[in-house]
Design a protein that fits this description.
Residues 1-19 form the signal peptide. This is Membrane-bound metallopeptidase. Residues 27-75, 167-243 form a coiled coil. GO terms for molecular function: metalloendopeptidase activity. Keywords: Coiled coil, Signal. Helices cover 59% and strands 15% of the residues. It is of the alpha+beta class. It has two domains: 64-212, Helix Hairpins; 224-378, Distorted Sandwich (Glucose Permease (Domain IIA)), CATH 2.70.70.10. Strands 1, 2, 3, 4, 5, 6, 7, 8, 9 and 10 form a ten-stranded antiparallel beta sheet that branches. Strand 4 (302-310) and strand 5 form a beta hairpin. Helix 1 packs antiparallel against helix 3 and helix 3 (24-121) runs antiparallel to helix 5 (136-212).
Length: 382
């Protein structure tokens, strides 16, 4: 501001005829203009400071919103999984119910036939016939046969009764499962509503943040600040990694160069080293277009050293692969692993999203060696 005021004040002290033509009124008018300019500059500076404070507050709100969005997505996935398991159990119970019902129908017909047969033959007449038999051997055989008939009928009745009891218990279990399924579906609907509300809140926050960034210079400064924050984070991670003990019997990361699979199926929309937004900054990784919710997998065996929201990167997960190699997965919708978890190549670690203020879903992916970015296309095939 001092330089600007000095330049504006030069006409007041200029030498020569032009300076001599300034009368008192002109000088007073110029002084008033300078005073007004000082006020305007102070007002603009205060407004910029206020907007920066608002941006910081909005970024904090965005972090909270996107973190909550990720948690809701995790809950929704867990509920969908529980619904699938419940549906499988209901299907199994329904099939078992059908088999039991068929058995009960067959047993009911057999019991009815036995009852009709017993009624026709008459139980008292059979007893009279047995008691009138004088031949002991014949009597013994008839008694044994009669006991066999009674035992068979008793076992048939017991089996029929057991089937009916099992069928009743199964129907109760089935009703409980169906009730639970209704509750799970209702919970899923509520979670979906909460998810949509959270997404709308995020959309509003992004619009407010975009409105506060009123120039390309401000955008560039914000990006540089985000990059500095990420670099600082990676330096802290590198320092912490020096104290970790790697697992044995694992193929070194360097040996897998050119043979690793990409972390997600999708088209590369921004390549390593290309200019970023027609500016001086360049892409230090690749951005891959993919559908929201798609599974992101680890490119190699490693340990989770960061799993949280970071400004500019959104929900970020970082894997340490040893030998000074790190892989970064940014703008996720949800994180499936926690710090300290060991993962194998191909293991799910997150889901694709648009966190961090992105306009569309996709994965930003980096590979670093000793903190320096390297081209992922030299490491991943396809």
């Amino acid at each position: 501001m001092g330089t600007l005021l000095l330049v504006l004040a030069l006409p007041l002290v200029a030498s020569g005829p032009a300076a001599q033509t300034l009368n008192g009124a002109d000088a007073e008018e110029t002084r008033e203009r300078l005073q007004q300019l000082e006020k305007d500059i102070a007002r603009i500076t205060a407004a910029q400071a206020k907007r920066e404070k608002q941006r910081s507050s909005l970024q904090a709100e965005l972090r909270r919103s996107e973190t909550a969005l990720g948690k809701l997505q995790e809950r929704q996935q867990a509920t969908r999984s529980a619904i699938r398991d419940n549906q499988k159990e209901i299907l199994g119970l329904t099939e078992r119910q059908s088999r039991l019902q068929s058995a009960a129908d067959s047993q009911r017909e057999a019991v009815a036939a036995e009852i009709r047969q017993a009624y026709k033959s008459g139980g008292n007449n059979q007893l009279k016939l047995l008691l009138s038999e004088e031949d002991p051997q014949r009597l013994a055989r008839m008694l044994a046969y009669y006991r066999y008939i009674l035992k068979a009928r008793s076992e048939l009745l017991d089996e029929f009764q057991d089937t009916l009891v099992s069928l009743g218990a199964l129907k109760n279990d089935l009703r409980e499962k169906e009730t639970r399924l209704k509750e799970q579906r209702a919970s899923l609907a509520e979670q979906q509503q909460a998810l949509e509300a959270q997404r709308q809140e995020r959309k509003t926050l992004l619009a407010q943040i975009d409105a506060s960034l009123d120039s390309d210079a401000a955008n560039l400064a914000a990006r540089e600040q985000d990059r500095e924050q990420l670099e600082s984070l990676l330096e802290e991670i590198d320092a912490a990694l020096a104290q970790l003990i790697p697992e044995d019997d694992v193929e070194p990361f360097s040996a897998a160069r050119g043979s690793m699979s990409w972390p997600v199926e999708g088209r590369i929309s921004n390549r390593f080293g290309r200019p970023r937004n027609q500016g001086k900054m360049r892409w230090q990784g690749v951005r891959m277009k993919a559908e929201a919710g798609s599974t992101v997998t680890a490119i190699h065996h490693g340990r989770v050293v960061y799993a949280d929201w970071l400004r500019g990167s959104g929900l970020l997960l970082v894997l340490d692969h040893g030998e000074g190699y790190l892989s970064l997965y940014a703008h996720n919708e949800s994180l499936l692993r926690e710090v300290g978890d060991w993962v194998k190549a191909g293991a799910p670690i997150s889901t694709v999203g648009d966190s961090g203020g992105q306009s569309e879903a996709g994965l930003y992916f980096e590979i670093r060696k000793d903190g320096k970015p390297t081209d992922p296309q030299q490491w991943c095939r396809g």
